[in-house]
Amino acid sequence: MLSQNQLTHLLVLLSFLDFLAVSMVVPQLGLRIRELGASQFTSGLISSAYGAIQLFSSTFHGVCCDKFGRRPVLLFCLFFILISYANLALASCFLSMVLNRCLLGLVKHTQSTFKVMGGDITSGAARSTFVSRTNTLSGLAFMIGPFLTASLFDNETSFLYGAMACSCIFVVISILSYLLVDETLTESSEPVKENPTAGSSSSFFQRIKKYKDLQVVFLYRFCAAFSVIILRYFIPLYTQHYFGFNAKDANYISSFTGFAGVVSSWMAGYVAALITEKDRLLRVFSLLLVVAIASTLLSTSISAFLVTQFLLSFVTQNLRLIVDSVLLSAASNTDRGEIFGVGASIIGACRVCGPMVAGILAELHMMLPLVFSLMLAVLGTLSISLNIGKEKKG
User: Fold this and answer.
1) CA dist., res. 103 & res. 78, Å (int)
2) How far is CA 92 from CA 38, 102, 154, 309, in A?
3) What phi and psi values does residue 33 have, to the nearest 5 degrees?
4) What is the pTM of this model?
């Protein structure tokens, strides 16, 4: 049986393998869908459908984790995930791709499960370190996965072999989870209070009302995630229009952003260690997000733009760490999965609406998506500063 420290390292490894597997498929998915006869609009709708399904399935998944246990739900999801990616590799028609993406939308909640399990067995600085390491390796995985796929396979077979390799990696994750993840270890970090309605929807919403900081954090997660998703989606079009970037330049920018994300995730743990008060950290980095987006909006040269992208990656990685730490700390073992599932559902909603809103605004004026992104960031910052400050005084 693994110790809690060993299990924490195992969860970080499993999270890395998960991101590595997905990164071998997702960058090619839109192209593969178009190869099967779908238009760009239809391809975008499939991506939105995946996010929409995750919007509703994330909270249900969290409830199941709290009710039936993390490990059984994780193994159940992993079984269908590896099947879905294998079917994606062999799919020869558009309908098959759609059905498998919908199935993945229902069961692809492994990352939130790993974080919830890590939250169960860690606390304080150890919890922040766990989340920071997970985010760092996720960025590293998204640098390695596409590079491996491009280097090992040619253009005609890259999606087929990439998806099969993805499925095989999930087989490895499933075996490691079955053999090494011990459900009993997740019960020993903190005492579980007796609650006759624990796990029910009424208990969950009563907890949301009781901890008003959670309401503020959920509101800020929505504003920040919506803002960043619009920005990330729009940046390739923005750089092409204002700096004349081509597709090759866009790939270099993506690689630079991935590198900045890895460095930023590595630095995030040290930042969290310097300031242990999460409320203060959240206020500081919410303001820095406004500065980063405003700097992007005002960039007039490529070098200035690259600096703003590094700042944006640094801020978003730290914000993800802080918000995850707040949610994990605010919940007990009986409702941590459900609360984290709600947070994942919020991001799912942003993934559904963000690209569509950015596209509509760009049709009206090229700068409107950036302006709207900035407005959302300002709104989130105001909600954090005013509400958390009021709660402290009360």
Assistant:
1) 12
2) 13, 16, 18, 38
3) -65, -40
4) 0.68
